[in-house]
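To close the chapter, one final illustration. This time we ask the reader to focus less on the individual chains and more on the assembly as a whole: which components sit near each other, and how the overall shape emerges from the parts.
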Amino acid sequence: MNWADLGTIAPVVVAVLVAAAILIVDMILPGRRNAILATALGGLGVVAVVLLAQAGHTGKAFGGAYSLDNLTVFLDFLFVSIAILTLLFAVDYLESRGLPLAEFAAILVFAVTGAMLIAGSTDLLLLFVALELMVLPGYMLVAFARRDPYSTEGAIKYFLLGSFSSAILLFGLAYVWGITGTTRVDGVAAALAKVVAGGPLAPGLAMGLAFMSAGVAFKMAAVPFHYWTPDAYQGSPTPVTAYLSVGPKVGAFAIALRLFVGALGPVKADWLPIIIVLAAATMTLGNLVAITQDNVKRMLAYSSIAHTGYILVGLAAYAGGQQSGISAILFYGAAYTFMNMGAFAIVTALQRRPGVSSQISNFAGLGRRDPWLGALMAIFLLSLTGIPPLAGFWAKAYVILAAIQAGGWLTALAVLAMVNAAAAAFYYLRVVSYMYMRDPAGDTEPSSPGVLFRAGLAVACVTTLIFGLFPAIVTAAKSAADALHV
Amino acid sequence: MPILSLIILTPLVGALLIAVLPSKETDLIRRTALAFALLAWVLSLGLLAALAFGPAGFQFVEALNWIPDFGIQYKVGVDGLSVLMVVLTTTLTWISILASFKPIKDRVKGYMISFLVLEVGMIGVFVALDLFLFYIFWEIVLVPMYLIIGIWGGGNRLYATMKFVLYTLVGSLLMLVAILATAFAFQAGHGGSWIGAFDYQALAAWAAGGHFTENLQILAFLALFLAFAIKVPMFPFHTWLPDAHTEAPTAGSVILAGVLLKLGAYGLIRFAVPLYPFAAHTFAWPIIVLSVVAIVYGAIVSIVQPDLKRLVAYSSVSHMGFVTLGIFAFSAAAYQGAVLQMINHGLITGGLFLLVGVIYERTHDRTIAKMGGLAAVMPLWSTAFGFFILASIGLPGLSGFVGEFLVFVGSFGVAPGIAVASIIVMVLAATYLLWMFQRIAFGELSEFLRSLGGHLTEIDRTELITLAPLAFLIVVLGLFPSLVLDLLRAPTQVFLAAVGVAVGG
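The assembled structure is written out below.
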């Protein structure tokens, strides 16, 4: 390790320092929420500035284990945005429930550090370590409301299945290492290109592929490896759910990009069928179950499974020979992050006072009793449905476009995705119907969120609109995807 | 001057302006909405006046790159057909907004914003020359209509609006797949360049060259046809329509029947047929048969409807059957008849819904069986209703006649049996409409109406103002159909050339 290496991984280093600083500030000035918030938000701001300075540069560190390229910067930006938004949405919620802010912020930043490390990992072992760094704080976040039995239950389920799947993934990585003799991503790709030239897949490699697919599918909550999701999502404090629905998911797709595209690209014809089946099952089941939910949080949890399915279509399109599948994944990830966090933020706002559930009946008449919250929720839900000209529409359009270009079975997958999108309209619009077409019932007190919360909502909403009106932003995703050209 | 963008933006600016007005200022909001709708109307009339009749192809074309990576543009332009549709839209919109002044008392701000956004979407669909842009406007129409039915509708509005949305979405999302597949076929045929891949003119030229494979044409046509057939709606995709119409507020029904159904027919004429001529020929017969089924079925079902609005809704299914029959007969007279019928249906059915709305305002009921003897208490209303009913039946001298007659003449050469069958239905139309009119207007004043006493007031001045332009146009187009047909001459040639029928036939 030398100074140049440190410069290359500067954003990760700064993020770790920010997390540490939050803990130190809390120690020196206990209970001073403003100081903690200032440290956390300011620190994340510094990370963003460092990222800006890195944009456009490329480099490798630690002998090629970590690489800085456009993909790293793109994903890092996304992760920092996720951290900032989560923090903004969590402040009121935590305060009204007497939950400590400093620990929350520190754990969150640690988790995001792990995600950022994934983004730049080009070594199988580093990838695994980074993954664990991302998910371990995640378990703690789920259990954060420790007096709430649901929170604990969700955390235990998440932890058991999560560590199980990590082990499976590691097992798969070991097979790949055994066959290719290297843990470097580019080395694996080069070795595989030779190994598989023409012939059928070696049994060991097939085993490795199967284990890795299962491991990654667990992390991204793809059917049939999704069972932990609804309980973990529903049990978690709502701001944590918002984070879980995007942070680890985008992280899992970052792994998929580095691992499946970067390392296993040469055998993509072999994992294409797996991804097609996963995508089809994931979006269909996620949607079907979401339709029957009466709890908005749980509905959004299942719908996030469905979105995983749509993103997998992009991965399948890549495996089908379309580079544009990768930029579609990235654009989808970014668009999904903002619209989904926005939707969860509104749920959080309704639950500002403890004891208010996220049942759909609590949304009745929201458009009348709180016009701004109602309108924003409508925008987020319409975007999630995929109505133009909002971000979610372009996300779907780009994915579908890549799939249709790839042709063959992928065209059928694209049609299935669109049928699913129509079915999804039912449960998203059902919430809109409750908000606007029913009279307020029960709790009619306005939620009057704080300034920080409003700022977060504004960011999520403006981004959803900007992505929708200026979809040429996909160019940024494209240049990030080009970093993976192998 | 970018007049088309100006027409699209006018209602949008109105909607944004209303969004910042305080909700309590309901009168100001109503007047602002009407002012912007009228402004859009005047602009569209200016467009109509400025359009050159002679040349084929599009005029007032504006093009801006939007997503250069995929060759997606903001490209708009008009020919005679689109201009007629735009004017129909702007006319019916201000009428609908004016007609909503009294009935809509709750959440006026949201209502007017929805209506103006709806207008943006509708105009956009008729002027878009980029397939992606077209799709976006198509979807934009959906949301305000969903809200208009769902918030300001009748008792069963939640069911009706969800059904409307889901039907439309299933069709339109498959259409998106078809549009992308078409663009990709174009791109693959141009050495991987996306330039022009969504451009309607480039695609139409490419299609005219017979470059799209038969496979692609069949699949893409079916997807587009499904989307448009749901919107028209053609039998058997019509079941959302009676529910949506019955539950929608009066102005919502006017726009739904007057413009939204035309979106589907316009899509067939503009996109589905010219881009996939092989498929259009392949499926022409089944579609003609479905059209006749719709004409007959709609008429028969109308006879037994107990609800005034439902009756008018089912009669729409029947009347729109003439439109699809005319489109797929592939002849000049049938095409022009179809377009004329689109306009007539918009004017006549719009008027009928307004008149039913007048009665509903006073009685809060639409059951035919409860009515009777209205001619005695509301002679002016009854006269107007009788006029629109005669127009709907197709009385010569009124516009309804010309459209159906041209479709009849045009399809007779192609399929005499079918044409005769459809014309016999006009007798059925006379049956259900006149019988309904007789039941509600003549005879003794019914028990129910008597119980309302002084509430049953004559149609007022505002309501007459909303009906007057429609009645005027029905008479004018009935006497001088050439006003519209001259505009359609060039688009007819283009359409027939695209489907490969001898020009002038």
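Chain A has a mean pLDDT of 88. The two ends of chain A are 27 Å apart (CA to CA). With these observations in hand, you are ready for the problems at the end of the chapter.
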